[in-house]
Design brief:
It is a single chain. The protein is α+β, with helices and mostly antiparallel strands. The chain has nine helices and five strands. Strands 3-5-4 form a three-stranded antiparallel sheet. It has a two-stranded antiparallel sheet with strand order 1-2. A hairpin with a 7-residue loop joins strand 4 and strand 5. The protein is globular and about 55 Å long. It starts with a helix and ends in a 5-residue tail after the last helix.
């Protein structure tokens, strides 16, 4: 493994959050962003070829060393991992609406959900999962909401395009066993 790949591995191992390429490039002033990307590919390939229990993930706008999904359940059972705070059903519904329809205003979210979402929006904003991304045209110029890079990180997504399509969601929801 190249010295740059080993340096990036050490930096990513010590970080609790995804690190953007620009920040990784600052570790070695002589490394270009292209060289950093090549070293990240080298690191990813090393983890894949050598059968490590970890992998290099691209989340949001950065990279992070992650546990391979097949080991997650065993690690959670042993309570070795720190569990993120769970989101309520209301928060997940609101977050899904924002993720699929962003930028979107509060009134439109409330129209879809049929309830007041002021408290949920405040909670999601405080948790850093959504942010105000602009203002709509029209009366009062209401605030528009969108998801943040932390949203992508929380749901292990690189881009919003990785969200399931509407037709895939319908199939998944039909396959879910329902309790009465």
């Amino acid at each position: 493994m190249s010295p740059l790949a080993r340096l990036l591995e050490a930096a990513l191992f010590s970080s609790a959050r995804p690190v953007p390429v620009e920040e990784l490039a600052a570790l070695d002033p002589e490394a270009s962003p292209a060289a950093v990307r090549a070293a990240l590919d080298e690191l990813r390939e090393s983890y894949d070829v050598n059968g490590h229990g970890i992998e290099l993930g691209e989340l949001g706008e950065g990279f992070q060393i992650l546990t391979r999904p097949e080991f997650t359940e065993a690690i959670e059972r042993a309570q070795l991992a720190v569990r993120p705070h769970r989101l309520s059903a209301a928060s997940l519904e609101t977050l899904a609406i924002i993720a699929y329809r962003q930028p979107i205003g509060r009134a439109e979210i409330e129209e879809i959900r049929g309830v007041n979402v002021g408290g949920v929006l405040k909670s999601l904003h405080e948790r850093g999962l959504i942010d105000i991304v602009g203002r709509a045209e029209g009366l009062g110029r209401p605030l528009l909401y969108g998801t943040t890079p932390l949203f992508l990180e929380h749901f292990a997504l690189r881009h919003l395009e990785e969200l399931p399509r509407a037709d895939e969601l319908a199939i998944a929801l039909r396959a879910e066993p329902r309790s009465i």
